Amino acid sequence: MSTAAGRRRPATIHDVAREAGVSRGTVSRVLNGGHYVSPSAKAAVDAAIRRTGYVVNRHARSLITGKSDSVAFLLTEPQERFFEDPNFNVLLRACTQALAAQDIPLLLMIAGTEDERRRNLRYIEAGHVDGVLLVSSHSGDPVVARLHEAGVPVVACGKPLGQTAKIGYVAADDRDGARDMVRHLHASGRRRIATVTGPLDTPGGVERLAGYRETLAEVGLPVDENLVATGDYSRASGEDAARVLLERAPDIDAVFVASDLMAQGVLDTLARAGRRVPEDIAVGGFDDSPAALSSRPSLTTIRQPWDRISTEMVRTLLARIAGEEPAAVILPTELVRRESA
């Protein structure tokens, strides 16, 4: 399989068929799922593919099947947030690995601005991907509705808010995780428990705040709105929120923070204010991201099962691409005790 110029030419399906001793049609059936092929013939084709180094021409296949054999990871956040928040990188890596097991490439798309949304939606609606893993959608974001109207299979990370379309999603049990953290803080003797919420147009922001409020009522503590500050999941917003809380309520003795990255910002502000953690103020986070381990002190937090979330997102999306109905999957969280609370 060399050209006249001495360069090795790519192996073709004909080369594989000749090497395996089968017809071109048999090779084609193996490449398209192995239906109506005997185990011995499939084994011969697989071995021939390895020996010849044959690689599927995805463009040619897409012209025949009408599918791209690729999936988009669409993040509806500003580009800088992708590099700052470790959760996105963890999720992207795990989804890439889950799709690689199916020999499906994953395209990263960031749509944090109107221009980025327009370009990415135009690309997706043109059929260049078979489905979308949607990450960090906000209430009122038109992306979900546009994809649904275009008939593009979508699975969201977290329950989409304010959507009339039936969209599949995979989520950690944010509300129950928040309950576990507030119960833990209360059980350790804390009675002035504040919270830093995530954005209240995201499912995590809404559900974690709801869990916080429900658990305060459950243990007989008043829900004081002065003890609630809102962040945007960034470290800087955690710093700002902690300053607001200390000004409003200097007597707080615990803070439940809706993300580990924001919790790092809370720890920064408390250190500058001369408040010891956990002696003066206990701090609990959410995610169990790398930020929890790099914090000083190390962060007590709620673990999201990122590997399972990624695996279920991919499984659910591939099922949607195959024609199944949208499904919702909610996974349990886990309290992880470390030094901060």
TrEMBL record:
Keywords: DNA-binding, Transcription, Transcription regulation
InterPro entries per the UniProt record, alphabetical: HTH_LacI (IPR000843), LacI/GalR-like_sensor (IPR046335), Lambda_DNA-bd_dom_sf (IPR010982), Peripla_BP_I (IPR028082)
Pfam families (alphabetical): LacI, Peripla_BP_3
Transmembrane segments: none
UniProt key word Transmembrane: no
GO molecular function, one term: DNA-binding transcription factor activity
Stretches assigned to the HTH lacI-type domain: 11-65
Name by which UniProt lists this protein: LacI family transcriptional regulator
